[in-house]
Predict the 3D structure of the following.
Amino acid sequence: MLSRSPVRAGRARLASERGWSLIVVLMILLATTLLSVAAYSAASGDIPLAAGDADSKSAYSAAEAGISYYLFHLNQDPQFWTLCTNVPAPGPGQPSPINQAWNGLGSDPRLWRSLPASSARYTIELLPANGFAQCDPTQPTQSMIDATQGTFRIRSTGRVNGSTRSVVATFRRQTFLDYLYFTDFETLDPVVYQMTNPSQQATLSTLCSQYRRSGRPEPPCTPIYFAPVDQVNGPMHTNDDILTCGSPVFGRSSADAIEIAGPAPGWQNGPCTAGTPNFLGTLKTSSPVLAMPPSNTALKTVPNAAIYTGTTTIKLNSNGTMNVTNAAVGLNNAIKPIPASGVIYDQNGACGVSYNLYQSYNDPAGCADLYVSGTTATSVTLASENDVIVTGNLMTTGAAEIGIVPNNFARVYHPVTNRSGNSCTNAAGTPTNIEIDAAILALQHSFIVDNYFCGAPLGTLTVKGAIAERFRGPVAQGGSSITSGYAKGYTYDDRLRYSMPPYFLSPVVSAWTLARYTEQIPATG
């Protein structure tokens, strides 16, 4: 047998890889172990953060539960808010979670309510308004209801394992401002018929001041139809039902409520173009009737309101002023500041006349005819014991809102000449393609274009806001095309869902709704 030399054997052993594989495997195992330890440490560090995030979310949910608790009781009793903290406990041995407002200083005086089978709990505070320190059950309206907006606020705070979050909720009653279009009666205002016999006029007013479902006779009452070209670009409500021609559009999307107090289907075709209305909004028939206030005299008593008597002309300016003309007090285009309250009220002197179908603008000087136009950056409510007449563009800038609240008619100025029956010529000064940025509320009568039935077409009447009227007022004549007056361009101002012009009036009776809620950062307590 041949044997290798010692030198060759040594070289073979040096070239061999045996032993190195084990070392490499051990090094890989060591690295993997170190990575696992690092990953575990990182995950362990995240556990408190994740738990804290979960507690924070649960605290917010608890705060929302407090809002729901208060809204539930408010729906059960619309006067619940007037009780302040004098409310019944939620159950035996459970304290009421409704407290006066706490400023966060000193020991926490609030009572809390625990959610069932949970470590979460909430407390509710009543946030006073108008400079009051707390809700006063002897004068709840003054201490809780914001005088300009008609709203009240509460704060709900949720807490879970030391995590605390607060939510402020604002409540307001259902209002006419919830709708782009609101009518009490879907018929022509009896005053517009111009009966020469006072007894006939009174009879007609009685006959036509009832809903179609209650037997309103047509004729002699004159129905008004939605034309094929009409579009209601927002939510609407009528205490009556509607007549349609063709396929007018109601609502912008399913988010817009189309509320009709009449029974299903809520609409009928008139003796015109057949078709089916296009309800883009969500149709709800047999809706509750919202009663209109009988007058706007409450606005006359608003502190710091500007009060005028008789025919008055006001042009709003974007710098917070207005130009006022009123012969009764010797004002001729005088520059005045818009009042701090935002309310301008025109009261009657010696008047003694009512609306005339053929409008020539010659009412006695004592009539509260308030002529308005201009642009404002300051919120204002223009109210009249008689009529408010818009003579040109009436517009807002920024966050400003305008209210128009006449006892009788809200009118668009349309002087005419060469009148013969239902024929006439548009006079100089007639506005064309007019824009009105306002919430309009005609308490006893209508929103109407003067002399709407004659003259050449005037373009588009753009209303950005809301229109509420007792009787449906015409703004044009014609069907698929306008022969006189204005084509409608009405669009809802969505800000009106949660805010309103100063001291704007609400329905006589309506439910409270949750207008909005926002988180307060930092939370209270």
In short: The two ends are 97 Å apart (CA to CA). Residues 42 and 404 are 64 Å apart (CA to CA).
